[in-house]
Amino acid sequence: MARAVSETHGEILAAAARRFAVTGYRGTSLQDIAREVGCSKATVLYHFANKEALLAELMAPAIGVLQDLDDRLGGLTGAAAQEVAAQGFVDLAVRFRREIAVLRGEFPELLCQPAFAHIQEISDRLRDALAGHSDRPGARIAALVLLAGISEACAEFVDIPDDELRPALLTLVRRAVEPVAVSLPQPPTTEDKDS
Amino acid sequence: MARAVSETHGEILAAAARRFAVTGYRGTSLQDIAREVGCSKATVLYHFANKEALLAELMAPAIGVLQDLDDRLGGLTGAAAQEVAAQGFVDLAVRFRREIAVLRGEFPELLCQPAFAHIQEISDRLRDALAGHSDRPGARIAALVLLAGISEACAEFVDIPDDELRPALLTLVRRAVEPVAVSLPQPPTTEDKDS
DNA sequence: TCAGGGTCTGACCGATCGGTCAGGCATGCT
DNA sequence: AGCATGCCTGACCGATCGGTCAGACCCTGA
User: Which residue numbers delimit the HTH tetR-type domain (chains A, B) (predicted)?
Assistant: First the structure.
């Protein structure tokens, strides 16, 4: 064998992304990844210090974008925060569908790992922003439902192209989010309180 | 020791429910459950044929209610199907929060087990009903986001009482669901809840 | 008193997990 | 030629998994 180092490194990363997305982090063994690449388990552990480091490198780009979004959310309040959070998260979720799928369901345990120390706080702030920083239970519940639902949808609808999924999700979020108290005049949606 | 059989049986079931909800099915060992109950792992396997049977008995009530909802959804179309699906699933998710939490994230693998053979089809039909049986991508995406988001919210908001969570979710769903094209003015259907 | 059945347990099993280690095999530099 | 370095591997490790099994400990009815 003896491929160029960067090549094998990338192949392992790609294989791990594929397997993690389907069977989860804990449900995927290093043996599984090695088999898919066509190398030995020891080779996987030659390129990555351990299983956790493999996951961390896999998630790094998505986490970087999430951090950026968190920074942009910094001083915003009310409807502005809602809109930035909605656009930012929908965009992130669509772009990083596979990474989202990896985290799906294993959130609590994975968050214990040092590489993901801040994700919990960031996602809390994101949820808060999407709720327009309102403390009404309805607003907070709606924000959580939407964030979790978007994640799940992106992980599941792998066959829908980005350009179709993104606007559909954004339309949904804008319709579903609880409008904040200070609401500048908004063209009334047709089916508002009717049914 | 030698408690009454039904007592230990129930304690194991309750402990398993608690642990599964927090660390997931695969992430919880029989040893963990036994430790929480205060008995040996062999005792757990005396009361339940295997780990899978323990999970099946745990999920049985929730699955029964899900089946009922599926039956009620049978002949409905359009807005009526949407409303029944929304009310039925919100009610189910709030009542069986812990069971929902167990399934969270381990859906694909758990569905392979015979006890849950039909859940995938039922949840597909449920999603279809919530979309008003529309084939527009926006409607299907919205339905999936809502179902997944509700599940996640119920699993996470353990501190909110049922009476507060249920109406908040229902309001959100009615606001977020894509209205179907043919919407006949429907009087508030007095759902005969328990048939 | 004793037999039998329900309840429970420690010891054990094979399989698999993440991870370690010494060494094989090219390749390139001196 | 000799040596160092980078890439890769089989063999192995301790831990833990789900599950089995023979037997101990009650309680009850004959």
Answer: 6-66
CA distance A155 to A18: 12
What domains does chain B contain, in order, with CATH numbers? 1-48 (1.10.10.60), 50-176 (1.10.357)
Angle at A192 between CA B184 and CA A168, to 5 degrees: 95
Determine the angle formed by the axes of helices A137-156 and A78-95, rounding to 10 degrees.
Answer: 20
CB-CB: which of B105, B157, B175 is closest to A104?
B105
Size of interface A-B (CB pairs under 8 A): 116
Q: Out of A107, A165, A195, name the one closest to residue B174 (CB).
A: A195
A41 Cβ within 7 A of any nucleic strand C atom: yes
pLDDT tens per residue across span B13-27: 999 999 999 888 999
pLDDT in tens, A53-96: 999 999 999 999 999 999 999 989 999 999 999 999 999 999 99
CB–CB contact A141 B106 (8 Å): no
Q: Which pTM was predicted?
A: 0.87
Type of residue found at A167 = P
